[in-house]
């Protein structure tokens, strides 16, 4: 115990991919590690939309952090929220007032939704960053069909059966495609008074094309596939207002009670407490080795870091492979620092981009290889299974996907929480 206490102390803030790979990369290093996260689980965010659209259960894409690290003896896991990082004093403060000191610190807090100054939209158009977000979207989608089943007014029924997705990036495209398949296949025979296939899915993109970071030809293929699924894709359509019963965009008023936000990200407000320069999204402008300027012992990783030390100003995107590579780099850097060796510079290896659109359909931009359709979908499945943490999750997701592909079904169609009608019925009479 005395030997362990004498070792340098590393605090890792965030149990996402960057924080987890950093921690695991130091399993045999002579260092004490404290990993702090405000949730007890590691989450594979790229597959959250499948929870939101009833294809998977939350436990299929999340694993308890303590379970993942239980064999790593040099790690303590704390459930807590860090509210301040004091770079000069080398301390972090938790929400309960506890202050911890460090020799090294890695901030990997990820990102949150950005509503571009319109915070009132958040309750009307939830995004996809957490299990709670996904379950809320799933609840709203399924309740919309239930309301439509009982609604005699055709206008209100149309409103209930119109789903609007705001943002044409990979998340927006994947959500829109999945919603189209839910109403086309999974729910097609479950209702008596409505035809779920008559539901509408509208994808709104403020820019000139969806999947703007992909080559134009892949964006066009994705748009064509979405339209084949029945998705109304509207580009150059900026959202100007969101109401409980409608979305205003591009001069149109779209009646809808179910809206999903996939249009923007912002960094954690914790980063502002560091005192380092930030970019427009609130990310820390890090040095070439991912450290904070003037504080080589303080690293910022993953979606929290703005790494602009290559030819392209946005060379390191906010994606899962980049976070993994930053975590692995940080582990090498700390091992080199402990051994007195030269600190390595971070080099991002762009492995390409993948976006799934629907059943057997995806687009892939893998360097010089650009393709779409079933081959891209198969590659997407293989890569996402590989990135999942734990054999159990990989096996369960593979079985779920195989079942869904063969039966066109979605087995996680549970409405959690009490519905408004039920809550009204159990209220005592006045």
Structure characterization notes:
The protein has 430 residues and is α/β, with parallel strands linked by helices. It has two domains: 2-38 and 80-113 and 265-339, 3-Layer(bba) Sandwich (FAD/NAD(P)-binding domain), CATH 3.50.50.60; 122-263 and 353-407, FAD/NAD(P)-binding domain (3-Layer(bba) Sandwich), CATH 3.50.50. 32% of the residues lie in helices and 24% in strands. It is built from twelve helices and 25 strands. The protein has helices spanning 2-5, 17-25, 48-52, 65-68, 131-150, 154-160, 170-186, 216-228, 320-339, 374-387, 391-407, 420-425, and strands at residues 9-13, 32-37, 41-43, 62-64, 75-79, 82-86, 91-94, 99-101, 104-107, 111-113, 162-166, 200-204, 231-234, 239-243, 246-249, 252-255, 258-261, 265-267, 284-285, 291-292, 295-300, 305-306, 353-358, 361-366, 369-372. The strands form eight sheets. It has a six-stranded mixed sheet, covered by helices on one side. It has a four-stranded parallel sheet with strand order 13-12-11-17. A three-stranded antiparallel sheet has the order 6-7-8, with no helix packed on it. A hairpin with a 2-residue loop joins strand 24 and strand 25. Helix 5 (131-150) runs antiparallel to helix 6 (154-160). The radius of gyration is 23 Å and the shape is elongated.
């Amino acid at each position: 115990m005395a030997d362990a206490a004498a070792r340098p102390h590393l605090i890792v803030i965030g149990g996402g991919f960057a924080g987890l790979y950093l921690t695991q990369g130091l399993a045999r290093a002579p260092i004490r590690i404290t990993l702090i996260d405000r949730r007890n689980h590691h989450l594979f965010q790229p597959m959250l939309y499948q929870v939101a659209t009833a294809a998977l259960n939350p436990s299929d894409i999340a694993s308890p952090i303590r379970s993942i690290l239980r064999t790593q003896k040099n790690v303590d896991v704390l459930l807590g929220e860090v509210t301040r990082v004091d770079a000069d004093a080398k301390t972090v403060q938790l929400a309960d007032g506890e202050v911890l000191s460090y020799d090294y610190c890695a901030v990997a807090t990820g990102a949150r939704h950005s509503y571009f100054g319109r915070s009132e939209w958040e309750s009307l158009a939830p995004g996809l960053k957490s299990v709670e977000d996904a379950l809320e979207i799933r609840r709203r989608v399924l309740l919309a069909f239930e309301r439509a089943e009982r609604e005699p007014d055709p206008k209100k029924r149309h409103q209930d059966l119109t789903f609007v997705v705001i943002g044409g990036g990979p998340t927006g495209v994947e959500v829109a495609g999945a919603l189209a398949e839910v109403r086309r296949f999974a729910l097609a025979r479950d209702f008596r008074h409505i035809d779920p296939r008559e539901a509408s899915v509208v994808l709104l993109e403020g820019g000139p094309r969806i999947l703007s970071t992909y080559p134009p030809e892949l964006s066009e293929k994705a748009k064509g596939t979405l339209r084949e699924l029945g998705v109304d894709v509207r580009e150059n359509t900026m959202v100007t207002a969101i109401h409980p019963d409608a979305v205003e965009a591009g001069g149109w008023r779209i009646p809808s009670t179910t809206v999903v936000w996939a249009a923007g990200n912002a960094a954690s407000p914790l980063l502002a407490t560091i005192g380092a320069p930030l970019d427009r999204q609130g990310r820390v402008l890090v040095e070439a080795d991912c450290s904070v300027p003037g504080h080589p012992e303080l690293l910022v990783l993953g979606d929290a870091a703005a790494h602009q030390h290559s030819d392209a100003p946005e060379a390191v995107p906010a994606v899962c492979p980049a976070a993994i590579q930053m975590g692995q780099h940080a582990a090498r850097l700390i091992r080199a620092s402990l051994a007195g060796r030269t600190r390595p510079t971070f080099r991002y290896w762009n492995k390409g981009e993948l976006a799934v659109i629907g059943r057997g359909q995806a687009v892939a931009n893998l360097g010089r290889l650009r393709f779409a359709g079933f081959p891209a979908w198969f590659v997407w499945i293989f890569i996402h299974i590989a990135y999942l943490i734990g054999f159990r999750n990989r096996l369960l997701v593979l079985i779920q996907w195989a079942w869904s592909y063969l039966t066109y079904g979605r087995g996680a169609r549970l409405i959690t929480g009490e519905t408004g009608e039920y809550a009204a019925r159990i209220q005592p009479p006045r």
